[in-house]
Design goal:
Elements (H helix, E strand, L loop, with lengths): L8 H8 L2 E11 L9 E7 L19 E4 H9 L5 E5 L8 H11 L3 E6 L13 E6 L23 E6 L2 H13 L2 H6 L5 E6 L6 H11 L4 E2 L3 H6 L7
Parallel strand pairs: 2-4, 4-5, 5-6, 6-7, 7-8, 8-9
Antiparallel strand pairs: 1-2, 1-3
Length: about 240
């Protein structure tokens, strides 16, 4: 009986190395959050179980390239920015994303994670800056919000509402009041509340007027990268 052929050692090593499926890694100006305007390297992971009605990154739902953590770290190192954002898709749908953020932090990067809020953030390294998107009804995915995540936010974290219409705005306003998010911002236990219009669907002036009328302690934001390069540009 012939002995079973053994796979080459290099192949064994490849299979043992942690990896993620990556849509793109690019260097750009951060377009959102309190980090808007800051040079940032983005790691866009592939895949998302949510299907928001206004999603602008559907190209990240499928495909991508298999990359080991070492390959991802090497790609990030080619750019000068020390701020790195792990995004998607939905990055926290991938268990390996938690370990990747830890690696990036240990490499000396400031790490942001853009997440839908539908996945448990508790296991993220406490050094991570979480930017959590609470889904308004207009997204079609508000039932996916994991409310327990609000208990795991700190003074370095931010909550974002993407508003499609007046119904979304009122839902966001009421959510802020129900969970005391306005007080969390005022007493410093939450970095910021963000509110932005759905690009191309919600006009800027009505949303700004509603925020002012209600006296909400939110930061109005637009997607700066779209102002610079246009709404359809990828890798920016």
């Amino acid at each position: 009986m012939q002995p079973e052929a053994r796979k080459p050692a290099t192949r064994d090593k490849e299979m043992a190395e942690p990896f993620l499926r990556v849509t793109e890694i690019f260097h750009s100006i951060q377009g959102e959050s309190t980090w808007a305007g800051v040079p940032c390297t983005f790691i866009r992971l592939t895949g998302c179980p949510l299907r928001c009605s206004w999603c602008d990154t559907e190209y990240a739902f499928h495909g991508g390239s298999r990359m080991t953590f070492d390959e991802i770290i090497e790609a990030v190192a080619r750019y000068p920015a020390r701020v790195v954002e792990v995004t998607g898709g939905e990055p926290l749908a991938h268990p390996g994303a938690f370990d990747l953020t830890h690696r990036l932090l240990d490499e000396g990067h400031t790490v942001l994670v853009e997440t839908s809020g539908a996945f448990d953030v508790a296991a993220l390294d406490p050094r991570v800056h979480k930017i959590m998107d609470l889904k308004c009804p207009g997204s079609g995915e508000s039932h996916r919000n994991l409310w327990a995540n609000l208990d795991h936010l700190s003074e370095r974290d931010e909550v974002k509402f993407v508003v499609k219409d007046r119904t979304d705005f009122e839902w966001a306003r009421d959510t802020i009041a129900r969970y005391g998010l306005d007080q969390k911002v005022r007493d410093g236990t939450l970095r910021a509340l963000l509110m932005s219009p759905v690009w191309g669907e919600m006009e800027l002036q009505p949303l700004a007027a509603w925020i002012l009328e209600e006296g909400l302690p939110v930061r109005f934001q637009v997607q700066v990268h779209k102002l610079i390069w246009g709404a359809d540009a990828k890798g920016v």
